[in-house]
Amino acid sequence: MILPIIAYGDPVLRKKGEDIPQDYPELAKLVSDMFDTMYNAHGVGLAAPQVGLAVRLFIVDTAPFGEDDELSEEEQKQLSTFKKAFINPVILKEEGEEWGFNEGCLSIPEVREDVYRHEKITIEYFDENFNKHTDVYDGLIARVIQHEYDHIEGILFTDRISSLKKRLINKKLQNIMEGKTRPDYKMKFIAKKGR
């Protein structure tokens, strides 16, 4: 089922997510609905706060990046097959050079900015069957994970850009909060002022 994506300005996007218990109701359905929602919006990651739930869950499928001809065959193959759910994740380590990449967010449509993140992470998490993993990722996979991890910490990519760039996109952000944007996927905007 395709869920509405919560738009910038909603307080749920600023909440630190709570851990998910093993008996969380209909967890498998939630994960499946999140994948449906993400694919419908042509995203590569989606966090639970973006569908209105302040819990520590996000999903990633980097397959669209696997079509980038500028990457090596090995990178393309790795990206085109990487699909995972991360439950109660904890990033244990971020290392390597910080590098810039033009990021966007389904909750902040039509806004893209260069964001600098570490090239390599070590993350501990549970999969949807509550098996525990500790994995190391780098490159674009690490970046997508860091972006989604920020969501469950109440952080948005716009928090990681300069104050000048924030001022330059302020009107766009205001328009999103007021529902004056029309992406080609279902969104839920916070109440419009004066109505």
Q: What spatial form do the alpha-carbon principal axes imply?
A: globular
Structural class: alpha+beta
What's the CATH topology label?
Answer: Peptide Deformylase
**Poorly predicted runs:** none
CATH class call: Alpha Beta
Under the CATH scheme, the architecture is Alpha-Beta Complex
How many beta-strand elements?
A: 7
- What number is the mean pLDDT? 95
Beta-strand residue percentage: 25-35%
Q: Which strands sit side by side, in order, in the main sheet?
A: 2-3-4-5-6
Helicity level, as a percent range?
25-40%
- Helix count from the secondary structure assignment: 4
Q: Tally the structural domains.
A: 1
Largest sheet: 5 strands, antiparallel
Rg, Å, rounded = 16 Å
Q: Can you write the helix and strand succession as a string?
A: EHEEHEEEHHE
Fold and architecture overview:
A hairpin with a 2-residue loop joins strand 4 and strand 5 (108-126). The protein has one domain (5-188): Peptide deformylase (Peptide Deformylase, Alpha-Beta Complex). The protein has 195 residues and is an alpha+beta fold. The protein has helices at residues 27-40, 73-80, 139-152, 163-177; strands spanning 5-6, 45-47, 57-61, 83-105, 108-126, 132-138, 187-188. 26% of the residues lie in helices and 31% in strands. The longest helix has 15 residues, at 163-177. The model has no long low-confidence stretch (mean pLDDT 95). It is globular, with a radius of gyration of 16 Å.
Task: Set out the fold topology.
Layout: E1 5-6, H1 27-40, E2 45-47, E3 57-61, H2 73-80, E4 83-105, E5 108-126, E6 132-138, H3 139-152, H4 163-177, E7 187-188
Parallel strand pairs: 1-7
Antiparallel strand pairs: 2-3, 3-4, 4-5, 5-6
